[in-house]
Automatic annotation (TrEMBL):
It catalyses: L-cysteinyl-[protein] + hexadecanoyl-CoA = S-hexadecanoyl-L-cysteinyl-[protein] + CoA. This is Palmitoyltransferase. The DHHC domain is required for palmitoyltransferase activity. It is found in: Membrane. The gene is LOC100690739. Residues 148-267 form the Palmitoyltransferase DHHC domain. It holds the Pfam family DHHC. It is a multi-pass membrane protein.
């Protein structure tokens, strides 16, 4: 399978600035866009056809026509349907979860937007963006040190947010665009995506572990040739190949979860005001895992949303700030966390670097020193 190749291709994020001038872009015709969107569902259709055939081959050809023992047949069917249900649940949650977008707080105010669109000089445009960004929890920059602004969506990009050229929108904590789910994988569905890979791997393991004895019997002619032989042999090969492909991708994403990185950040370290830092968002293994799966273990194994934060702002390993400060910043700009949401944790714009490896934060005339804790 070519899941890895497609995954690596999908992390390439097209820069809108190359095709956009003052917020204008060349749009394809309506018919072409419809054809493109229809074609994007082909990989999803393929996966569903494979799963549908595997269901028929396992339930009908193996359990009904091949397995002679009723107790074995029932136990296989129960285990198979449990893992199939979890796999399908996580898969469809990944597909149908709408990517989270930046809130209105990250849009330019009307006056600044008009100035930005009239301005011809890039330096002057950056000054306008810097003025607006001072009131936002935004701390990452472009490689050149500029404020990250999306000309397509006309918003200042929150930290870890990127524009997806396929979905044609900015996606919070974007990881990559996955053709196998025809959706962007990001803040709103990254947990579902990891669970989808996990249960897909377990689904393949269950099939291989229960089919192998009948695969060997058909292969060695211990069972007579019949209509079930082809399905049993092919089912084992397909499950084994999918498992090898999926488990490698799963291992990579589990590593990313432990490091608190996205696929984009693994290939290109995020730039902060003091330069690139590939571990800038890493808070230690346990906190990194909790950021994706939540702090309540009872929700970890189910595709229900339990990730921490709101996707607009993130704790970093450099400093720790009172969550209420970040909340007040977003509320002042028209966006506060919804009822029941965890408060975001972010850096303060008044943080100053010092030469001794610490940070000082000016707060109402008082200086608060915050020591940098480097991750081992």
């Amino acid at each position: 399978m070519h899941l890895w190749l497609d995954h690596l291709k999908a992390v390439v994020v097209t820069s809108p600035s190359a095709n956009v001038k003052h917020g204008l872009k060349m749009a394809p015709s309506h018919a072409l866009r419809c054809c493109k969107r229809a074609l994007n569902w082909v990989p999803v259709l393929f996966i569903n056809l494979v799963v549908g055939w595997s269901y028929y081959a396992y339930v009908v050809e193996l359990c009904v026509y091949t397995i002679p023992n009723n107790a074995e047949r029932i136990s296989y069917l129960v285990i198979f349907h449990i893992f199939l249900a979890m796999f399908i649940w996580a898969y469809w949650k990944t597909i149908w979860s709408k990517p989270a977008n930046p809130s209105e707080a990250f849009s330019l105010p009307r006056a600044e937007k008009e100035l930005y669109e009239r301005e011809e000089r890039a330096e002057a445009q950056q000054e306008i963006l810097k003025k607006v960004a001072r009131n936002l929890p935004v701390y990452t920059r472009t490689a050149g040190g500029a404020i990250r602004y999306c000309d397509f969506c006309q918003v200042i990009k929150p930290d870890r947010c990127h524009h997806c050229s396929t979905c044609e929108m900015c996606v919070l904590k974007m990881d990559h665009h996955c053709p196998w789910v025809n959706n962007c994988v990001g803040f709103s569905n990254y947990k579902y995506f990891v669970l989808f890979l996990s249960y897909a791997s377990l689904y393949c393991v269950v099939i291989c572990a229960t089919v192998i004895q009948y695969f060997i019997k058909f292969w060695t002619k211990q069972l007579p040739d019949n209509h079930a032989k082809f399905h049993i042999l092919f089912l084992f090969f397909v499950a084994a190949l999918f498992f090898i492909s999926i488990v490698s991708l799963l291992g990579y994403h589990l590593w990313l979860v432990g490091k608190n990185r996205t696929t984009i950040e693994a290939f290109r370290a995020p730039f902060f005001t003091n330069g690139p830092d590939k571990n800038g968002f890493s808070l230690g293994f346990s906190r990194n895992v909790a950021e994706v799966f939540g702090d309540q273990a009872k929700y970890w194994f189910f595709p229900v949303f339990s990730s921490q934060g709101d996707g607009h702002s993130f704790v970093t390993r450099l400093v720790q700030i009172d969550p209420e400060q970040a909340n007040s910043v977003l509320q002042q700009n028209g966006k506060g966390p919804a009822d029941g949401e965890a408060n975001p944790h972010v850096l303060s714009n008044n943080v100053q670097h010092t030469e001794d490896g610490s940070k000082e934060k000016m707060n109402g005339g008082q200086t608060v020193s915050v020591t940098i804790e480097n991750e081992q």
